[in-house]
Amino acid sequence: MEKTAIVILNWNGVKMLTRFLPNVLDYSRDEATVYVADNASTDNSLEVLKTHFPEVRIIRLDKNWGFAEGYNRAIEQVEAEYYVLLNSDVEVSHHWLTPLTEFMDNHKDVAACQPKLLSESDRDSFEYAGACGGFIDRYGYPFCRGRMFDTVERDNGQYDYAEEVLWATGACMMIRAADFKQAGGFDARFFAHCEEIDLCWRLHLAGKKIYCIPDSFVYHIGGGTLPKNNPMKTYLNFRNNLTMLYKNLPDSELHHVMRVRAILDYVAALQALMAGRTGDFKAIIKGRKAFKKWLPEYREARKEIQSSKAVDTITGIYRHSILWQYYAKGHKKFSDLEK
């Protein structure tokens, strides 16, 4: 069994592969094997891989399974101690794997970690998708060290220390294979969005830890699958976020949080409608309806998660409302938050 396997999920991403894969190979070849799992692309991704990147191991999937199940099915075919789930639009840096691997080797209670994520287009700024490690507030709104809603900070070294977080970004996550499999991998029904937060939350409940290790850093384009304001992305985010909360929140918080979220979601939908974003308005309503429709399917999953959890209190959930902190109090940076 190999030590580290880098697994890049691809769907019609030949331009990204051509642009970023050489960099990954150059800076990883002595420390990891690189796999590309192809979600039944209809462009010439496979031909380009075979012709120009013969050292890459190709995993062919029979259809577009999305991010969550695509990775589940790909990882079934890879034997390694550590998996690195890497987006195809990430530029890595020299010796980027070493700090991650060393940290995991020395901290057996850590299930997953991420590097510092910087913007490929503005290299002195954090990147939206993961910045310097992820958190959520008590109502399920994600934020990061270095990114609060649409406010992305400059990287001035303010978060250059290892920190336990709630979630590591799916754009670049190193995860212990045994823990990934023990947790059952990503929730395949999510398809895409929130699947890494859900997985990391479940790992926390199992008694594991998640870290950001900023000694390692990479550059991410972001938005490679769906544009930021795409209604489908809005739909998936709302549906999956509500499902994640339902699965993982303790009984003592579930009903209160869900009531508040219903109010906040309909306010968000109304704001979208008033701003002329009818696609987002419809997507939010559709996302809530989809969550309610498949809720019965998740009752057993919730029961299993809650009955088997090893801990009740986990790191990385901010006990206040990030909406209130951001919009009412004007706290736009992670370091501004009330403790």
Task: Describe the overall structure.
This protein is of the alpha/beta class and 339 residues long. Helix content is 40%, strand content 21%. It is built from 11 helices and 14 strands. It has helices at residues 14-26, 45-52, 66-75, 97-106, 177-182, 195-205, 231-248, 251-274, 278-294, 299-308, 322-328; strands at 2-10, 33-38, 57-60, 80-86, 90-92, 110-119, 134-137, 142-144, 147-148, 151-152, 163-165, 172-176, 209-220, 317-318. Strands 1, 2, 3, 4, 5, 6, 11, 12 and 13 form a 9-stranded mixed β-sheet that branches. A 3-stranded mixed β-sheet has the order 8-7-14, with no helix packed on it. It is globular and about 55 Å long. The mean pLDDT is 95.
* End-to-end gap: 44 Å
Low-confidence segments: none
- Going by helix content, strand content and strand pairing, the class is alpha/beta
Q: Total number of helical segments?
A: 11
Give the helices and strands as they follow along the chain: EHEHEHEEHEEEEEEEHHEHHHHEH
Fraction of residues in helices?
25-40%
| Quaternary class | single chain
- The radius of gyration is 19 Å
Question: What is this entry, summarized?
Answer:
The chain is an alpha/beta fold and 339 residues long. It has helices spanning 14-26, 45-52, 66-75, 97-106, 177-182, 195-205, 231-248, 251-274, 278-294, 299-308, 322-328; strands at 2-10, 33-38, 57-60, 80-86, 90-92, 110-119, 134-137, 142-144, 147-148, 151-152, 163-165, 172-176, 209-220, 317-318.
